Amino acid sequence: MALRAMNAVTPPPGCSEVTLGGALDLRAFLGIPHAAKGIVIFAHGSGSGRLSPRNNYVAQRLREAGLATLLLDLLNPVEERDRRNVFDIALLASRLRMAVDWTATSEATAALRPAYFGASTGGGAAIRAAAGDDRIAAIVSRGGRPDLAGAAALATVEAPTLLIVGSLDGLVIDLNRDAAEAMHCEKRMAIVPGAGHLFEEPGTLDEVVRLAIGWFLDHLEGEQA
């Protein structure tokens, strides 16, 4: 709770707060390290947003690895009051595409190719948003629900996709395995031993970070050549 209160006033170190969407007033934390290799846009799940402690930790580690990050509130405070919006994958995907458009026109990020990091329902939103968008370099889903992207998006997404699931998250493992079978892009499914759905167990989130950094750099570093 203290972390949320702090971040509500002050962006994380190395980040600035920006506003996207005009009248939508969607707040985001933007962090750009020196010589960034790309920008990772976060798709939070279950009504979470830019203040998510887990995603802020992951974002910090990505920045340390040379990746810019954008932690965006996909819903504004008014929209958050309607819980149906939290599970409206089409709506969330539209906000992610809006964020990609914003990075393409912002002077600070225009040269950086975008990628997505999705968690929970955000994993499905990221895949839905990436389907048909050849700007997206890669996707990482942490404990995600790629099945929520829908059959059409799973079959047409072209961005290389890494699905990370905890070994204790039985149902989600099955959903991710089925989704992976429906995808025709480059894909990999990684199961983190001893991890539950939220990756709260010691060392498990660090393993997510290791896998994500490797995946993003593999697919973004070539863009800098």
List keywords for this structure.
8 helices, 225 residues, disordered N terminus, alpha/beta, 20% strand, 8-stranded mixed β-sheet
Summarize the structure in words.
The protein contains eight helices and eight strands, in the order H-E-E-E-H-E-H-H-E-H-E-H-E-H-E-H. The chain has helices at residues 2-9, 53-64, 77-80, 89-105, 121-130, 151-156, 170-182, 204-220; strands at 15-20, 26-31, 39-43, 68-72, 114-119, 139-142, 161-166, 187-192. An eight-stranded mixed sheet has the order 1-2-4-3-5-6-7-8, sandwiched between helices. Helix 4 (89-105) crosses helix 5. The longest helix is centred in the middle third of the chain and has 17 residues, at 89-105. The radius of gyration is 16 Å and the shape is globular.
Q: What is the strand content?
A: 15-25%
Radius of gyration: 16 Å
Mean pLDDT: 92
Low-pLDDT stretches: 1-8
Instruction: Note the total helix count.
Output: 8
Concise structural overview:
By secondary structure, the protein is of the alpha/beta class. The chain has 8 helices and 8 strands.
